[in-house]
């Protein structure tokens, strides 16, 4: 498969996964009392798929090389966390908020750096990635420190953070993955 076709496929899958994260976030906000064990399996599966997409994206060549620059290591981490969440549901239930908080904060920090790089490339909308990444990072910290003891409230916060993560990744895919035929 040629580089251009592979990049288009990875970009489209990246966008679809981002939208699935948005849908999961909305679901968790709407039904915060849903089963945490079910969430572990669902999120574990999504993290494994998302990690595989990130790893695939790392090996593609987009024109700006922004969207996937950190995705080899982060993709492996996401897949490992996904496997742990599925295999060790009881253990994962206790750590779900901390794990999500750290993953969301880490991705937000990578996206903040990406927005700075996008500015250097001259992308006019770089600041939008920065703003969404900053908000996502703050929510990631809140999920990690668990400011609310009520499980339902925390699930709404987790849902909101997953929604923001999906929006952030969607926006990054749209703004930074550029397919320029002459460049590949």
TrEMBL record:
Q: Which segments cross the bilayer?
A: 12-30, 36-53, 65-85, 91-110, 122-145, 151-177
Annotated InterPro entries: Acid_resist_chaperone_HdeD (IPR052712), DUF308_memb (IPR005325)
UniProt keyword list: Membrane, Transmembrane, Transmembrane helix
What is the protein's given name? DUF308 domain-containing protein
Q: Source species, please? A: Blautia aquisgranensis
């Amino acid at each position: 498969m040629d580089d251009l076709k592979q990049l288009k496929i990875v970009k489209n899958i990246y966008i679809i996964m981002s939208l699935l994260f948005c849908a999961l976030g909305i679901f968790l906000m709407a039904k915060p009392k849903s089963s945490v064990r079910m969430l572990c399996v669902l999120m574990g599966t999504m993290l494994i798929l998302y990690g595989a997409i990130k790893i695939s994206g790392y090996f593609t060549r987009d024109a700006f090389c922004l969207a996937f620059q950190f995705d080899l290591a982060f993709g492996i981490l996401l897949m490992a966390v996904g496997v742990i969440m599925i295999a060790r549901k009881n253990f994962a239930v206790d750590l779900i908020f901390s794990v999500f908080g750290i993953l969301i904060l880490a991705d937000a920090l990578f996206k903040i750096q990406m927005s700075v790089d996008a500015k250097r490339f001259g992308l006019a909308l770089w600041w939008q990635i920065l703003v969404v990444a900053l908000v996502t990072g703050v929510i990631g910290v809140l999920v990690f420190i668990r400011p609310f003891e009520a499980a339902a409230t925390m699930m709404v916060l987790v849902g909101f953070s997953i929604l923001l993560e999906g929006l952030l990744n969607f926006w990054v895919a749209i703004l930074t993955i550029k397919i320029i035929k002459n460049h590949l």
